[in-house]
Amino acid sequence: MNLNTLPAYRFIFLVAFIACSAKSAFAQKPVLLEDFKFTTGEKYKRIKNINTYLFASGDHILSLKKGRNDMTVQRFTAKDLKEDVKLRQIIEDKGDFQTAMKLGEKVVSFYTVRDKLYGQKVAFSKIVAEQPILIGSDKESIDNDFGFKSTYGFDAGGRINKFGIKKSKDGSKVVVVFRIKTDDDRADKIGVSVYSSSLAELWSRKITMPFPSAVMEYEDFMVDNNGDFYMTASIFNSKDANKDKLDSSYRTEFYKVKGSDKELVSSEIKLSSKVVSNAVIEEHNGAIKVAGFYADNSNRKESSGVFVSNVDQSGKIMTTIQSDFPSQKVEELLANREARIAEGTQDKDDKSDFENIRVNEVIFTNGAYTILGEQRYVEVFTTSSSSGSRTSYKYYYRDILATQLSDKGNINWMHKLPKSQLGSVGKRSMSYIHSLHQNKHYLFFVDDFTNLKRSFEEFPQRYYDGKKEFIYMTTYIIDNSTGQVSKEAILTGSDIRNSRLDAIELSKYGTLSDGTRVFEVFDGKNSNLLVKISYAKK
User: Fold this and answer.
1) Long-range contact list for 122-127, CB < 8 A, 24+ apart?
2) Domain boundaries, the chain
3) pLDDT in the model for residue 492
4) For a disulfide at 280, which of 152, 157, 239, 368, Cβ 3.0-4.6 Å?
5) Contact 199, 132 (CB under 8 A)
6) pTM for the predicted model, two decimal places
7) Is 21's pLDDT higher than 70?
């Protein structure tokens, strides 16, 4: 066909036809993975809120929505996902909301009033909100920032938190942590209180740390199923106002505190010629472990391997297994990056593959440790004008790094799985969630539709949180034994009554007893509805 001889109106029609055909080819509905089935509930009027939480217990689902001056509690039946409007409840906001979590058969909302932390229990199936319980306070002044940098297992919520609150793996214990205001050159102090799931105090202590805050940066903390407290901290060799791990020498120490013993047990996580770049504390079958990523001393900007430290009964680091990322895999990833830069699909100044890697989850299976990480970071922008200054944020949730380490210290398999998500109001629909079922790891996330056809070597199309586009929920599937990986679509907005997946709170879901997960979605107009995603029976 000679385009030069075409009449103008026919040429315009041809261009429009080609454009529409291309759009149709890209926007056609993907074939959905048959491993899952989904159920939608009835729509209900949307309630504007700052934070939304979903919890499940037995046949009941509870949604807690934090508004500006109150909290709205909605109660649903798990079977049909229908709200019982008669059980809807408005609870007066009595302080600064911190977080909410399921403890026992109740949901507990935590809030602060000055230097005091309160917990208020809310029932799943009745209009019951009990009297608040005081669970955190001290005669000494409490610091406005409780100091821990890790958000692992902790609903940070984009806030500076005065109190850190986490529950144990089995949900039977909850720990509250805060810092006492001290001068930078004096030994730092933290307060630790451990409670049962009914919020009965088990023990409470103030702990004087071995170092002042000027040389100490708190990292992760946790409470185990027995009610013992553990934490990690980076200790700098000299005072550093910025506590910059890229330029300053530091080591990582591990601590244990028992309610029945006043001794603070400490030990160092030692890695030959390496430094801990990011790590978390986990419990598995009653044993405490520290797992995560490390970097070479010569290049602390990029993670270079994974490790797992085993803790003995006394609370000291007993043994550590570690392994560098396989050199062949690293070289392959570098070659792919250089190819993308050469073809113009990736900027040469973009983050390196192993920069800003954070631990998302640690899974224990048959003597192996699967460490799931993510490249995530925040950029801060401040602009000034005659009316004052304004600060804005960009939140990046990028590639998934999945690595399995054997108990002998060998890498069984490793994958860098492409994903690019950007938002301006916190986590919301970004990052990913994990599920292990029938020896397969499922990594769910919300993504741009065009990425479904891209290979693992290509640079992904960026997904923008809160921007309505043709998107879908997808999953990477990794065989736990072989490491074989694939990518499949789970559902699109059209499958759930044209709802907007870009507004889903992906990490705030309720879990039913059979592993089914319940999410709340927005239809883009005036309504919400619940969606159940469950494993298909085979």
Assistant:
1) 122/62, 122/64, 122/73, 122/89, 122/91, 124/55, 124/57, 124/58, 124/60, 124/61, 124/62, 124/75, 125/60, 125/75, 125/87, 126/87, 127/87, 127/89
2) 1-30, 340-496
3) 87
4) 152
5) no
6) 0.91
7) no
